[in-house]
Each structure stands twice: as C-alpha cells, then as structure tokens.
Write a structure and sequence with these properties.
Rossmann fold, NAD(P)-bd_dom_sf, 10 helices, globular, Quinone oxidoreductase, alpha/beta, single chain, Chloroplast_QOR, Quinone Oxidoreductase, Chain A, domain 1, 6-stranded parallel sheet
Length: 310
C-alpha cells in the first residue's frame, strides 16, 4: 500500500510517497481502506519540526502524518464486533492517516451515518472536536453571550461559528472579505475584516475570544474582550505569550490541546446528519499531491477543510 512519509523534518518536499506492507491484524483491530484523510496545520507544523507534534516523534522518524480519516472496513480481528466489513467509519488517529490502508483498534473509529457524505465525515473530526472543546470545555460559552472567533473561515473556525450559533451565542467572525458571504451563510451575526482596525475598534466587546491565530493577532484582539471576559487561545506554539498578555489585562485566559472523545464526535456527526452542522471541503488532493496540500494549508488562508484522497 502507498503511504506518505517524511524521513526528516523540513519543507513540503520532504513528503514522499512510499510503498509499504499493511501489518497483520491483532484480535481487537481492523483494516480500513482510507477514502479521505483530513489535512491540518499541525501536520505541516510537525513535518517542519515545530511544536509538540515534532517533539513527540523526533526520535521515531520516518513518520507518516494524518490525524483524521474516513474509510471503509476491509477486515476485522477475531474479537471485533462493533464494526463489520464494508462499514463506513471515521475518526481521530494518533498518526499515519496519509495511507491507503490503516490498521487501528476497532474502537478508535465511529460509524458514519448514512446521511453524512464521505468528505464531510473525513473533515469533521479534528477541527470539530477542537471547536467544540474550545467553545464549551475551555470557553464555557453560554446562550446569550457574544463570542469573537478569529480565523473564522478556516477548518476549526467555520465549525466553531456554527456550533456557537447552535449554543445560542451571538457570533462575531473575523475573515478576509472574500469569506464574508460564506460566514454569513453559516450563521455568523457580524463579520469583520481582521485587517480593518477602525471596524475592529468599533466592535462591541465580547464575553469570549476564541483565538485561532495566536501570536500578535491573539494579543491584538484582547482589546475586544470585556473586562470580566474569557480567552481561549488555540494555537499551542504561541499560547504562553497570549495568556501572559491576557492575564496582564486582568482577563481569564487558557490554552488548550484537543483530546479525543468519541462521545463528542458522535454528537458532532449527528449534527452533520441533521443538517445543523456543515463541513466545508474546499479542495481534495491525491496522496501523490500531498506536498501541494501542505503548501496550501501553510498559506494560512484555506477555507474550511482540505482532504487527501486515498
Ligand atoms: N490546540 C489544539 O488542540 C489545536 C487543534 C486544532 C487546531 N489548532 C491550531 O489552531 C489554528 C487554526 O487551525 P485551523 O485548522 O482552523 O487552521 P486553518 O484552516 O489553516 O485556518 C485558515 C484560516 O485562517 C485565517 N487567518 C489567517 N490569518 C489570520 C489573521 N491574522 N486573522 C484572522 N484570521 C486569519 C484565514 O482567513 P482568511 O482566509 O479569511 O484571511 C483562513 O480562513 C492553527 O494554528 C492550528 O494549528 C490547535
């Protein structure tokens, strides 16, 4: 089977398509034909040798990225009864999603409901769970509150906009003008260009800032938060500096690292099946085009999600 791997940290060219054998199954495992793997900024950061992801794998190269997939079950181990051959499954992985086939513990992945497309299931897991945990577990967002979401048109942001609306919040979304109609259509109440300082300064203060950009952007947006407001800064690499700046202004601030929770994922995919949540897939690449997909995610201007096709 084909798999995209890196032998060393570096630019997108480090991603090379290799041929490897799919391992034998343990009793609790299943073999899955990957149809689509989500491409996330963390894949590219880890490939480049940055952040917690690179720290975790630096002594075990070669490494294959890919933290979320959708596929079909090809074979199950002798003790597996929660999934069957032919089932459509999706969910979060520890890595190696950029592979034609995967061997995973059967309880890692969830069934895809009939009403959910392969593509939406593939793009939901990582961004969806991050958006949900950022808004609720860390942000403690309540109905009636105002939430400011930066990078609102991106993978996490476009799902956070919809989830925050569903929770009864007023959503203020930041994006380039080209994405404003997209965000209004997803339910955002106010949509602003993050480069327009005058418009930003005139914004009514918010209860919660979901900072999806971090660094200088995250720090600049602290001025829009109510004195008793809350800040969740999602990019881990700049979290310390944003939290320190927020706390120096008397705000309550936290970083986060998403954790896998299949109950939350089940609720999210039900929301997709019930048309309360939509996963925007803006582009699909072949496995052989993995480097192009990484160059796209590294532009920082991807709308919704991009996928690799297995
Ligand atoms: N801690 C965790 O557990 C966790 C989990 C998931 C993601 N993350 C991190 O969270 C961040 C967002 O992830 P993602 O998947 O949503 O990324 P993404 O899809 O690559 O985000 C792209 C979006 O960022 C927007 N953007 C770029 N610069 C901006 C700025 N200065 N102000 C406002 N928006 C800006 C772009 O908007 P326009 O095109 O409209 O300009 C684009 O729509 C990444 O840093 C990622 O690594 C962390």
């Amino acid at each position: 089977m084909k798999q995209l791997v890196i032998q060393a940290f570096g630019d997108a060219e480090q991603l090379v398509l290799t041929e490897s054998t799919s391992p034998a199954l343990a009793a609790n495992e299943m073999r899955v034909k990957m149809h689509y793997a989500g491409v996330n900024p963390v894949d590219a950061k880890t490939r480049a040798g940055l952040g917690w992801g690179a720290e975790a794998i630096k002594d075990s190269l070669p490494w294959s990225p890919g933290l979320e997939v959708m596929g079909t079950v090809l074979e199950v181990g002798s003790e597996v009864n929660i999934h069957h051959v032919g089932d459509r499954v999706f969910g979060l992985l520890a890595g190696a999603g950029y592979s034609e086939q995967l061997v995973v513990a059967a309880n890692t992945l969830l069934r895809v409901p009939k009403a959910v497309s392969d593509e939406m299931a593939a793009g939901l897991s990582l961004a969806g769970i991050t958006a949900w945990q950022g808004l609720t577990e860390h942000g403690l967002l309540k109905a009636g509150e105002r939430v400011l979401i930066s990078a609102a048109a991106g993978g996490v942001g476009h799902l956070a906009v919809q989830l925050a609306k569903d929770l009864g919040a007023t959503v203020v979304a930041l994006a380039s003008p080209v994405n404003h109609d997209f965000l209004h259509n997803l339910g955002a109440d106010e949509v602003l260009d993050y480069r327009d300082e005058q418009q930003l300064a005139a914004l009514a203060p918010v209860d919660l800032l979901l900072d999806l950009v971090g660094g200088a952007s995250g720090q600049a947006l602290l001025a829009q938060v109510k004195p008793e407001g809350r800040v969740v800064t999602v990019p881990t690499i700049t979290a310390k500096e944003v939290i320190a700046a927020a706390e120096s202004q008397g705000l309550s601030a936290t970083g986060m690292l998403k954790h896998n929770d299949n109950q939350q994922l089940a609720s999210l995919v039900t929301a997709v099946a019930e048309r309360r949540l939509r996963v925007e897939v803006s582009q699909i690449y072949s496995l052989a085009e993995g480097a192009d997909a990484h160059r796209q995610i590294e532009t920082g201007h991807t709308r919704g999600k991009i996928l690799l096709q297995g």
